[in-house]
Amino acid sequence: MPQTTFPLHDRTVGEIAARLPGASGVFRRFGIDFCCHGEVPLAEAANRRQLDLGALEAVLGDLDPLAIPDAPRETGALIDHIQTRYHQAHRRQIPELIALSRKVEAVHAGHPEVPGGLADLLQRIWGELEVHMKKEELILFPAMRRQAADRIAVPIAEMRHDHDDHGAFLAELARLTQDHTVPEGACRTWQALYAGTAQLRADLMEHIHLENNVLFPRFEKGA
Ligand SMILES: [Fe+2]
Ligand SMILES: [Fe+2]
C-alpha cells in the first residue's frame, strides 16, 4: 500500500491493518476495532468513534508503508508466528493475571474501584481461549499447512464466531478495569495487574487481527 494510494477512507480497517505496518497500533490507540470488525470502512470506523477522519488519515499517512511488518507473510511462517508469539504468550499471561486479580480483589475488597469479578472473567476467557487455540492447533492450522482449503470453510467460520466472543470478553475486561486505568495510589500488584490486562488486550487484538484479516482470507477467497 504505497503512500500515493491515500486517502484511505473507503478502505476497510482490517485491510489497512493487514497491509500498513504500524496501523494496528494506531487503531488500538484510537479505540478502533480492527480485529473483530475489520470489514468496516475507515470513514465509518472514525464516525463511530467520533474521530476526525482527516486527522486519523494523517496519522496513518505518517507510517512507513515499506517498514518491515512484525508478522511474516508466508502462510507456514505466519502460523508458526501466531502460535509462538500469541498462543504461547496467552498461556503464560492469563494464569498469572488470574492469580494477581484474586489477590487484588481479596486485599482491596472494600475499595470503591476494586475490579470485582475480574478473576472470574479472566478464568472464563482462559477456558474459552484454551479450547479455541487447541482447535486451531490440532485441526485448522494443520489443514492450512496441507492447503486443504476445501475442508476448512466451516472451522474458519467457527473460529471467526469464537473471535467475536473474545472481542466481547475484551469489552467486559475494559469495563471492569476502567480501561486498564489504576486508581490513584494503587499498590504495585494492582499496577502489575492492569499493565498485564492491557498487554493481554493488545496481544489478543493483534492475534485475532492476524487470523481474521490476514490468514483466514487466504483460504476463504476460493472456498
Ligand atoms: Fe489463534
Ligand atoms: Fe483464533
From TrEMBL:
The keyword Acyltransferase does not apply. Pfam families: Hemerythrin, ScdA_N. Keywords: Cytoplasm, Iron, Metal-binding. It comes from Paracoccus denitrificans (strain Pd 1222). Residues 80-218 form the Hemerythrin-like domain. The keyword Protein transport does not apply. One of its GO terms (cellular component) is cytoplasm. It is found in: Cytoplasm. CDD domains: Hr-like. This is Hemerythrin-like domain-containing protein. NCBIfam families: FeS_repair_RIC (TIGR03652). One of its GO terms (molecular function) is metal ion binding. InterPro entries: Hemerythrin-like, RIC_family.
